[in-house]
């Protein structure tokens, strides 16, 4: 059954070892932030640094693993029809919109949506790691300067993951304008 994450919102759920998670961009150009925790001990969580170290590359996609802070495989990416994901940038937060956008008004954020939805699993805001930003198109130049460009994902693009341990998962439909080419759309997911 396909589940829908409404625009600028999120959800959290469990995934058993061996189950598969399909994350779908139903309309195109929509980023989804995903964080992972070991369901048996949530102090073990997704690590951008370990993943980039062990995969020996910045662009993570099909055939790669997402690794934990304890150097364990958490998920394997079985399929990736988009081919461009980010593991450098943190989830957008209220401070993101203040500092980078100059917006002091309330704005939904991935950090808030992850915090709110993971609370039922007793995950505290300070426990939330750098997210694996599905479909996010971060570019860099020869001097190392970063830019966030419109996602390359088209309607129906997806990533298929397989859990390598029992997991707690937080996932969003990203709320940052720059990440989503100026508009907000839903994200779909399916547990297989």
From TrEMBL:
DUF1989 domain segment(s):
5-168
Write down the InterPro entries for this protein, in alphabetical order: DUF1989
Q: Which domain of life is it from?
A: Bacteria
List the PANTHER family hit by this protein, alphabetically: RE64534P (PTHR31527:SF0)
What this protein is called in its record is: Urea carboxylase-associated family protein
Native species: Haloflavibacter putidus
């Amino acid at each position: 059954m396909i589940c829908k994450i409404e625009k600028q919102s999120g959800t959290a759920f469990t995934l058993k070892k061996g189950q598969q998670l399909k994350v779908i961009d139903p309309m195109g150009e929509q980023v989804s932030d995903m964080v992972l925790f070991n369901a048996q001990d949530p102090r073990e969580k997704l690590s951008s640094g370990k993943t980039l170290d062990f995969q020996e590359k910045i662009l993570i996609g099909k055939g790669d693993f997402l690794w934990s802070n304890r150097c364990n495989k958490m998920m394997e990416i079985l399929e990736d029809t988009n081919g461009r994901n980010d593991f450098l940038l943190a989830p957008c937060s209220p401070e993101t919109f203040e500092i980078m956008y100059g917006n002091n008004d309330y704005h939904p954020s991935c950090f808030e949506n992850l915090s709110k939805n993971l609370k039922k699993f007793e995950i505290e805001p300070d426990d939330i790691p750098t997210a694996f930003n599905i479909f996010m198109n971060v570019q860099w130049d020869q001097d190392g300067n970063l830019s966030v460009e419109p996602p390359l994902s088209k309607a129906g693009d997806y990533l298929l993951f397989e859990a390598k341990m029992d997991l707690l998962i937080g996932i969003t439909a990203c709320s940052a304008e720059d990440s989503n080419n100026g508009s907000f759309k839903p994200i779909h997911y399916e547990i297989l």
